[in-house]
Amino acid sequence: MMIILFILIIAGLAGIALIILPKFSLLARLDTTALPPEQEARKKREILFRRIETEGEAMRQRWRQRWKPLKRWWGRVQLSFRIYVGKIERLWRHEQVAARKSFSSSTPRGAEQETRLDKHLKAGQSHLSQENFEQAEESFIAAVKLDKRSVPAYAGLAEVYQLKGSLSEAAEIYEFLLQLQPDNDIFYLKLGEIAEAQGKLEHAIHRYQQAIVLNDALSPRFYHLAELLLKIDQPTVAYEAIRSAIDLEPKNPKYLDLLIEIGILCNDKELANQAYQELRSVNPDNQKLVGFRERIDKL
């Protein structure tokens, strides 16, 4: 990639030289004998800078068109790389758990213990649904005391802490749950929600991507990922995320709405126009169409 950028920079400089150098020979041929020396010099400068400005704008437009496919390609590379890193991290975690078999499985539970555990879990869920967080916490803790590796007990306790706003405690439990179930995409999703609530957007993006690696069949995850990428000023990568959401739900107006917004932010009139036409065909009464049309026409 660095080699490509270096070649583009050299080509740009060469282009500027080819534009500017002929101007000096042109100025030398201008008939300025009828002008006073001061006017002659000023006229030469005006002609030079006017031509440079005109040619420079034309060159910028040409390079802008050439850069569009490269920017999209780079966006795909970034998103693919992040997902790849997520896969590597997940495999690494899985190996860590497999290597730590000293972290032995729980002892077999008797029928009486099983009944008591089930009773505490049901009570915890009941209290949680009624937002009785203190009672729910007590029930899930009682379940954990019966089985130190009970995933439902820890998951219930983590949810209690998350809903109470004790985000650090909730995140700690979800991290522990990932040691028990490294391939559980819900736990990664929960960690993403917590990081987002804490304002740690880049970390949240990383967690959401890990959830997507494990389950890429849910379009809302791609949509929310695109929203977060826009918040950290990465519209090109956000395009790849929202495109994935639209591949899963082609006629979702909310997704097409965001695709238009991304097209406008990327200054990509062709993309914005195409998304606009798709949205208009799916939802012709959408009140945002007029505003989108005006913004697209200004690109």
Number of helices: 13
| Mean pLDDT metric | 78
Name the beta content range. Answer: under 5%
Q: What distance lies between the first and last C-alpha atoms, to the nearest angstrom?
A: 28 Å
| Shape estimate | elongated
Order of helices and strands: HHHHHHHHHHHHH
In total, how many beta strands? 0
Low-confidence stretches: 16-35, 95-107
Structural class: mainly alpha
Q: Write the CATH homologous superfamily of the largest domain.
A: Tetratricopeptide repeat domain
Give the tally of structural domains.
2
Oligomer: single chain
Which fold name corresponds to the CATH topology of the largest domain? Serine Threonine Protein Phosphatase 5, Tetratricopeptide repeat
Query: How large, in whole angstroms, is the Cα Rg?
Result: 30 Å
What does this molecule look like?
The protein has two domains: 71-99 and 110-215, Serine Threonine Protein Phosphatase 5, Tetratricopeptide repeat, CATH 1.25.40; 216-299, Serine Threonine Protein Phosphatase 5, Tetratricopeptide repeat. The protein has 13 helices and no strands. The protein has 299 residues and is mainly α. The chain is elongated, with a radius of gyration of 30 Å. It starts with a helix and ends with a helix. The protein has helices at residues 2-29, 37-99, 111-129, 133-146, 151-164, 167-180, 185-197, 201-214, 219-231, 235-248, 253-265, 269-282, 289-297. The relative contact order is 0.06. Helix 1 packs antiparallel against helix 2 (37-99), helix 2 (37-99) packs across helix 8 (201-214) and helix 3 (111-129) packs antiparallel against helix 4 (133-146).
